[in-house]
Amino acid sequence: MFGVLNLNKPRGKTSRQIVNVVKRLVHPLKLGHAGTLDPMATGVLPVCLGRATKLIPLLQKSAKVYDAEFTLGQTSDTDDATGVISEVPVAAEQAQDAVDAALQKFVGVIAQVPPVYSAVKVNGHRAYAKARRGEGVELKAKNVTVFSIEILRYSWPVLQVRITCGSGTYIRSIARDLGKRLGCGGLMSGLIRCSSAGLMLPDSLDPNVLTAENLAQHLVSPVRLVRQHLNVIHRCSTSDRLLVGQGRPLSHEGEAKEGAPVGFLSEDGCELLAIGEVKRGHLQPRSVFHVDQFST
Length: 296
Hints:
Layout: E1 3-9, H1 15-26, E2 31-33, E3 42-49, H2 56-60, E4 64-72, E5 74-76, E6 85-87, H3 96-103, E7 108-112, E8 121-122, E9 125-126, H4 127-132, E10 142-155, E11 158-165, H5 171-182, E12 186-196, E13 199-200, H6 222-229, E14 232-236, H7 238-245, E15 250-251, E16 261-266, E17 272-279, E18 282-288
Parallel strand pairs: 3-12, 14-16
Antiparallel strand pairs: 1-3, 2-3, 4-11, 4-12, 5-6, 7-10, 8-9, 10-11, 12-13, 15-18, 16-17, 17-18
Helix pairs in contact: 3-5
């Protein structure tokens, strides 16, 4: 079995719990998800099965779209509504123009400090574990990319926004930092992942409907995902196919940036043979797949 499930994670479940639902159906097949969602969040959770787990690093780098709800005038120790909430006593109602102007400061490549209650490792330990033990946690800012932020609805103190961002972005941190910028405090009170790795929420599947018998029919073709995410696609002749299977580089006459990811497909474009990168003007396979067929 080789493919990706587009699952709709329900509120209150961890991403690992959803993976375990699938694992019970396909054990001992290897599987994993391509991007954690907080327990309070819902929405698209890509789960890769079998050799498709080799695609996880690629899928994790893809842009994601979130519909988020922020509550202004409040703060919490977790930066969301699941933590210990504190009202900001002098919080003044903010005009929408001021809120939008502040939001746009978070568009682009920004330095973002993750929430203290996060899976970031500090000296080999998860930050959330240290925070729960009452230990002090100091996290360093890291660069993340936010492509756009759009206000969907605003009625003080509740703000609903759509955020398109790159990997590693914490929506909770945007809520927290927006509140700081406005001087009124802010936290994330709801989150829906609308798309990830090219998988869309309207096409996502309730994990509870999966069975051992119907699971295979819901798999998304890795060929489709590779075509969506990679600009360099090489269709392999019979001789190329042999070289790719041996992990050997192929000559390349087109223009491609050094280090750019490459998808190696069968000659008819229906099978994913490998993924790799451009290296010194050649196409170098890195992760080679056994050939399973998918319709495109």
